[in-house]
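Usage

Read records sequentially. Each one opens with the input sequence:
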Amino acid sequence: MKVTHSVHHPGNITDNTGLLPTVVAIHGHGAHSQDLLGLAPFLANGRLLMICPQAEFMLQPGLPSYTWFEPTGTDLKRSPAEFERVAERVSDFIVEALRQYNGDPSRTVLLGFSQGGSLAYRISLGEPERFAGIAALSTWLPEEAETAASSGEALAALPVLVQHGTNDPAIDINRGQDSRDRLTALGVKLRYLEYEMQHQISAESLRDLSRWCEQILDLPSLETPEHDSPSGQIT
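and closes with the structure output:
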C-alpha cells in the first residue's frame, strides 16, 4: 500500500532482535506527515523509530494541508463507513511500515493528535494486543472506537495516555473529560493529564509524553535538562 509518510530513524539497534522501539504518529486535520516528526528528538532522547503517515486528501492545493476523511462538497463531516475505511487503511500501513523499517511490533506506541487521535483510538482499542500503548493528544473518543473496542485481558492491559489543554478552542476540555470517563468504563490502564494550554503540545506535556514512552517501551530514563526541551509549541 502506498501511503506518503515521514520517518525518524534513531540510527542504532537497541537489542539483539534487530528491532526498534517505535512510535507511529497520526497527525491532525490540516497538517501533514512532518507535522509531528519534530517530536522525535525529544521523545526518549531520540531513541525511538518514529513513523508518521500522511492523510490522503489535500485541503488546499499547493499547500501541505491534509485531512484523513474524504470531503464531500463543503461538508467536512465523515460517514461511519469512511471512518472505518480510513482506519483500516492506516492499520494496514502500520503493519507494512513496521516490517519495512525494522520496528518492533511488541514495542510500538500508537500516537494521535486531534483528528489523528480519533483514528488512533479506533485502531488500538479494536486490536489492543498489537500495541504497547496509545497516546491520545488533544482529541476525543469517537463512538466507533468505543463500539469496536475489544474486551478481556488485552484491552485491560493496554496503557492509554490522554493529554488535553484546559483552554483548547478546537476540542473543548469537556470532550477530553468525557473520553476519560468512557475509557475508564472500558477498563484500560488510563493516565489522564490536563495542562494549561490550547490545542497544542507544550514543553510540559511533551516531557510527560517522553517519560511515559520510556516507561511503556521499557527504556532506561535519560532525563533531559529543561532547557533542552523545545521552546516552541506544536498546534
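Summary fields computed downstream for this record:
- The longest strand covers residues 103-113.
- The chain has one domain: 5-70+79-220.
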